[in-house]
């Protein structure tokens, strides 16, 4: 039954790019809901959009419908989606005059982009670079938890959004350094520095 469903999905007109664009739409909806301070609904839209982000690459490989442009589009949309949702979070913190959390959110955006950039740049140099603790999946889980339990919407007087942002800021910066050191070690093994 499962194999039949999988083969029908592969034979359908569904493309990996359509899944990527659906993920973008989900994350844009999440950002709009966060701006309206509907955090639980925003979390649900963010989770669904992020699931599309994680499925598009797998579906591309499984179906054979992938293309170099599709891989490029997927990576590009992933960065846009993360940035848009975090910008909405930063806007919320700015409205509540929480300057420290705004700064941490900006640092999280920079750190998230650097985690992705260091991997892409390493792979351009021929070094596999999937090391580090703050992968996209980990960041999605942390931010999802923060949004679900933001502003006491589910549990009164319990707000997990700010701690989630601080954790993401620290973990993305740490992961960036992990990747820099990993790439340095890998490149030194190939051609020791003079």
What does this entry look like structurally?
This protein has 194 residues and is an all-alpha fold. It has a single domain, classed as Up-down Bundle (Four Helix Bundle (Hemerythrin (Met), subunit A)). 78% of the residues lie in helices and 0% in strands. The protein has 7 helices and no strands. Helix 2 packs parallel to helix 4, helix 4 runs antiparallel to helix 5 and helix 5 packs parallel to helix 7. It is flat and about 50 Å long. The chain starts with a helix and ends with a helix. The model has no long low-confidence stretch (mean pLDDT 91).
Top CATH class: Mainly Alpha
Question: Low-confidence runs (pLDDT<50, min 5 residues)?
Answer: none
Range of strand content? under 5%
Q: Report on the biggest sheet.
A: none
Question: How many H/I helical runs?
Answer: 7
In the residues, how many domains can be counted?
A: 1
State the helicity in percent bands.
over 70%
State the order of secondary-structure elements, H for helix, E for strand.
Answer: HHHHHHH
Short key terms for the protein model shown above:
mainly alpha, Four Helix Bundle (Hemerythrin (Met), subunit A), 7 helices, 78% helix, 0% strand
Which helices and strands appear, and what pairs or packs with what?
Elements: H1 2-11, H2 16-35, H3 39-63, H4 68-95, H5 99-124, H6 136-148, H7 161-190
Helix pairs in contact: 2-3, 2-4, 3-4, 3-6, 4-5, 5-7, 6-7
Q: What would you say about this model in short?
A:
The protein is mostly helical and 194 residues long. It is built from seven helices and no strands.
């Amino acid at each position: 039954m499962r194999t039949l469903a999988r083969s029908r999905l592969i034979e359908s007109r569904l493309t990996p790019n359509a899944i990527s664009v659906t993920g973008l739409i989900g994350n844009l909806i999440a950002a709009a809901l966060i701006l309206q301070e509907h955090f639980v609904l925003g979390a649900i839209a963010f989770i669904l959009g992020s699931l599309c982000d994680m499925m598009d690459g797998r579906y591309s490989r499984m179906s054979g419908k992938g293309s170099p442009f599709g891989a490029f589009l997927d990576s590009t949309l992933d960065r846009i989606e993360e940035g848009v949702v975090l910008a909405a979070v930063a806007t919320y913190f700015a409205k509540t005059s929480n300057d420290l959390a705004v700064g941490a959110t900006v640092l999280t955006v920079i750190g998230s982009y650097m985690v992705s950039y260091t991997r892409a740049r390493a792979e351009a140099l021929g070094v596999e670079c999937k090391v580090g603790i703050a992968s996209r999946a980990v960041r999605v889980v942390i931010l999802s938890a923060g949004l679900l339990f933001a502003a006491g919407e589910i549990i009164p007087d319990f707000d997990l959004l700010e701690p989630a942002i601080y954790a993401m800021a620290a973990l993305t910066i740490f992961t960036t350094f992990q990747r820099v050191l990993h790439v340095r070690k890998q490149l030194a093994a190939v051609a020791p520095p003079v």
